[in-house]
Structures are given as structure tokens and as C-alpha cells.
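Try this one yourself first.
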């Protein structure tokens, strides 16, 4: 085999380098999974437990003000609504079926009970479930890098 020269690259030839999160280092600094989930359910930073996860109702802060954990890199977009629908659906449909079997109420009674119950449970559970999902994603190292869109 003939000797082929190894191409010499300059920094101008290389693609720009972007930040990639060190997932192993982040996971090592976090508490056990049940603690991270519990802190997320309460809307606190899964890492330190003192900072807040949310800025507003569902907007996740970029990073914790206390420990600088990269909370904004945990993209909990579709999972929290899915889990919320799963839980609320089981509670509401199960309750409707039990009430129907026990009392046979009029349709307006079912509507008056279960429509507000669905709205209240959905709005009440969505934020804690999103917080727990952020804690889970942070603990498992499921963070986006700055190259992800």
C-alpha cells in the first residue's frame, strides 16, 4: 500500500463546535429518582430542591437560580399532557361509570359533575406532572444539546 498523506485540517475547515451536555456528570449530581420526581411534583428544582422549575404556569426556567441545573434543556413537551389525559381519563370515566351504575342520574347531572371535574383535574395535574417529567428527564440525562431544534 502506498503511503497516502494525511490531510491537514485547519480550524477553518472544521465545523463549529457546539455545547453538548455532559449527561453523566449531571446524573451524578442529582438525588435518587424518587427524590427528583417528588421535587418536580412540588415545582422545585429536582437537583437542589430549593429553586423553582417554572416561570409562569408551564414555562420551564432555563436554569435553576440556586444550583444552575440546566432545567430548560429537559424538553418535556408531549409527555405531561399525555400522562395528564391518562390519569384524568381513568378518574373521570371510572367515576362516571360508577355513578351511572349506582344512581342512574339524568344526563344534565352527569354533565354538571364531570365536565368541571375534568377541567379542574386537568389544570391541577398538568403542572405537577410536567415538573415530575422534568425531574425524570434530568435524572435520566434526557437533555437536548444546543444543536437540537
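Now uncover the answer:
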Amino acid at each position: 500500500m502506498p503511503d497516502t498523506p494525511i490531510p491537514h485540517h485547519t480550524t477553518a475547515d472544521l465545523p463549529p463546535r457546539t455545547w453538548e451536555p455532559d449527561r453523566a456528570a449531571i446524573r451524578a449530581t442529582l438525588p435518587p429518582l424518587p427524590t427528583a420526581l417528588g421535587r418536580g411534583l412540588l415545582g422545585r428544582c429536582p437537583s437542589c430542591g430549593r429553586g423553582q422549575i417554572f416561570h409562569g404556569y408551564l414555562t420551564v426556567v432555563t436554569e435553576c437560580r440556586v444550583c444552575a441545573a440546566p432545567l430548560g434543556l429537559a424538553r418535556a413537551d408531549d409527555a405531561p399532557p399525555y400522562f395528564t389525559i391518562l390519569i384524568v381519563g381513568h378518574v373521570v370515566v371510572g367515576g362516571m361509570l360508577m355513578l351511572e351504575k349506582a344512581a342512574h342520574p339524568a344526563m344534565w347531572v352527569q354533565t354538571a359533575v364531570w365536565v368541571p371535574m375534568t377541567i379542574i383535574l386537568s389544570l391541577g395535574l398538568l403542572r405537577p406532572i410536567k415538573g415530575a417529567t422534568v425531574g425524570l428527564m434530568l435524572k435520566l440525562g434526557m437533555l437536548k444539546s444546543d444543536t437540537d431544534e
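Discussion: Helices lie at 23-29, 33-41, 79-103, 107-140. Residues 39 and 46 are 5 Å apart (CA to CA).
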